[in-house]
Amino acid sequence: MALAATTMPPEKVEIFKSMEDWVRNNLITYLKSVEKSWQLQDFLPDPTSKGFFEQVIKEMRLRSRELPDDYFVVLVGDMVIEEALPTYQAHLNGSDICRDQTGVDETPWATWARGWSAEENRHGDLLNRYLYLSGRMDMKEIEKTTHYLIWSGLDVSTGTNPYLITIYTSFQERATFISHGNTARLAMKYGEEKVVQICGTIASDEKRHEIAYTEIIKKLFELDPSETIIAFAEMMRKKIAMPAHLMYDGHDERLFDHCTSVASRIGVYTARDYMAVFAHLVAKWKVEKLTGLSSEGREAQDFVCGLLGKMKRLEERGIAKAEKGLPIPFSWICGREL
């Protein structure tokens, strides 16, 4: 199968440059202004109020007691992924289209990357502050995990190729929308309304970002269908690596695997969800109906369209695997085992 290169030849860069007016008029409209955006303080007790300490005890600590340890492990995993944002922005800035060389470049692509990062930055901060105020966590171990993850960097097999990067971000934004949405629903089950509100709001942001990234790919399918489907096939052939797969807390070398097993076991993000994200994108981009493809493009199209059946055969195996295993201690919850 023809593979998408991890860097782009000059003629492909020109395609993205030709999209700048489209980005300015369509993509950037998915961003919200600062004044119309939610901020962390909208969800948390006011530290300047006289009743701040009582609010923390009543609203945060008492209600958080209803949440079990496995839920908190998944919430920490979600938070750490969001907190590694500096790595993700650096990845976008290093792509063959953003190249925000000064940090204040006025190109539409650079403007989008900074705006997206600004919105995403609130997610990890809000979850971090909730976890801190809950009084349930070993915050130093959590902070070390974030430190290690940003230090380790990011390797999701996209190189600087924006076709691959945008396929990846389309998938990931959909996956995080599902994950945060499921954490909100589970919090509702346990009666923790504040977490329902927090995770539901974050999920709404992720959904909006997902739409934006999938619109980029939809446009690329119009302008360059063969290269785009080859990139889609390449990312799926490699399997989409989660951005926190290098997660480490200084103790557990397999922390990411153990965290994702817990997430699967309690139904926050499973092999079935991974398959659903893929199926959604195939339908969204009407992959089966693509025409005018090169021979390599048709080969990639056949691969993508045949992949769903293979995923279904692996689905139950992946879920069953997550349900097995010995209890593992998590430093985040003071070494308690799950």
From TrEMBL:
Cofactor or coenzyme needed: Fe(2+); Fe cation
GO biological process entries: fatty acid biosynthetic process
Binding site for Fe cation 1: E82, E120, H123, E206
Binding site for Fe cation 2: E120, E173, E206, H209
Pathway named in the protein's UniProt entry: Lipid metabolism; fatty acid metabolism
Pfam families noted in UniProt: FA_desaturase_2
Cofactor mode of binding and number, as noted: Binds 2 iron ions per subunit.
Location within or outside the cell: Plastid, Chloroplast
GO MF: metal ion binding; stearoyl-[ACP] desaturase activity
GO cellular component: chloroplast stroma
SUPFAM superfamilies found in the cross-reference section: Ferritin-like
Keywords assigned: Chloroplast, Fatty acid biosynthesis, Fatty acid metabolism, Iron, Lipid biosynthesis, Lipid metabolism, Metal-binding, Oxidoreductase, Plastid, Transit peptide
Classification via InterPro entries: Fatty_acid_desaturase-2 (IPR005067), Ferritin-like_SF (IPR009078), RNR-like (IPR012348)
Family statement drawn from the similarity comment of this UniProt entry: Belongs to the fatty acid desaturase type 2 family.
Identification of the protein by name: Acyl-[acyl-carrier-protein] desaturase, chloroplastic
Provenance organism: Morella rubra
